[in-house]
Design brief:
Helices cover 12% and strands 40% of the residues. It contains three helices and eleven strands; from the N terminus they run E-E-H-E-E-H-E-H-E-E-E-E-E-E. It has helices at residues 36-46, 88-91, 133-145, and strands at residues 6-17, 28-29, 52-61, 67-75, 92-113, 153-154, 156-160, 162-165, 181-191, 199-208, 211-213. The strands form two sheets. Strands 1, 2, 3, 4, 5, 8, 9, 10 and 11 form a nine-stranded mixed β-sheet that branches. A hairpin with a 2-residue loop joins strand 10 and strand 11 (211-213). The longest helix has 13 residues, at 133-145. The radius of gyration is 19 Å and the shape is globular. The two termini are 31 Å apart.
Length: 224
């Protein structure tokens, strides 16, 4: 059977966002715009199944890039099965964060269908004659109603995102900002199927008149 990956579009907004650069972890500094990994996570929060994966294709920046600097209390420890408890007062750390404010994006992503023979976990639903169209309909229904499995967020969980499904016949959409810049190396996503474990992927992000074209997962433009 031949499968056609359907593309969807979401309008995403939020008061604050922090897409932390991996090279700057002690003091959090955000990317200028949302990276594909964070954009994909928004689609995952609305709808995900073992039979599909989301691949971001385009990001449109609809609001000017604005910055805000704050100081936050964070816990400098990670809970684990070996840790009985964490005393917050002893592990509290105050860190500076350079965040984005009043963000607004239009995100395009394909729902890529994974045939049952290519899935790792065969205990889930599926079959040789499985119709991927049902997953398209399930996402559309949930996105139109504003339903999600987890609250979508913009980089870190305290910065929640509001979303709306953009229909194909919609007009009078916000235009992208008239700005062109080289955003440098940006985190693309994680490759969880790599032989060495989870492998971070990067790409050279270019914003042309407010639009970032995201290369496909298997593109040579992805740096592994």
């Amino acid at each position: 059977m031949e499968y056609i990956d359907k593309e969807f579009c979401l309008d995403v907004q939020g008061e604050m966002a922090c897409f932390t650069r991996p090279e700057l972890k002690v003091e959090r500094v955000s990317y200028d715009v949302i990276p594909p990994s964070a954009a994909r996570a928004i689609f995952d929060a609305i709808f995900w199944k073992p039979a599909i994966r989301w691949e971001v294709t385009r990001i449109e920046v609809l609001a000017p890039v604005k910055w805000a600097s704050i100081r936050r209390n964070e816990v400098g420890a990670i809970a684990s099965p070996r840790t009985k408890c964490i005393f917050i007062e002893e592990k509290r750390q105050q860190r500076s964060s350079l965040l984005l404010r009043d963000v607004h994006y239009r995100i395009h992503a394909k729902q890529v269908f994974i045939p049952s023979k290519n899935r790792k976990d065969e205990k889930h639903e599926g079959g040789e004659d499985e119709n991927p169209g049902k997953y398209n309909a399930m996402f559309e229904r949930r996105a139109r109603k504003g339903q999600c499995f987890n609250q979508p967020y913009l980089g870190t969980r305290e910065f929640s995102a509001s979303f709306r499904l953009i229909e194909k016949d919609e007009t009078n959409l916000y235009p992208p900002i008239p700005e062109t810049r080289d955003l440098g190396l940006m985190h693309y996503d994680m490759d969880f199927n790599h032989s060495k474990g989870a492998l971070p992927l990067y790409f050279r992000a270019q914003m042309n008149q407010g639009v970032i074209e995201v290369p496909p997962f298997n593109s040579p433009d992805i740096l592994r």
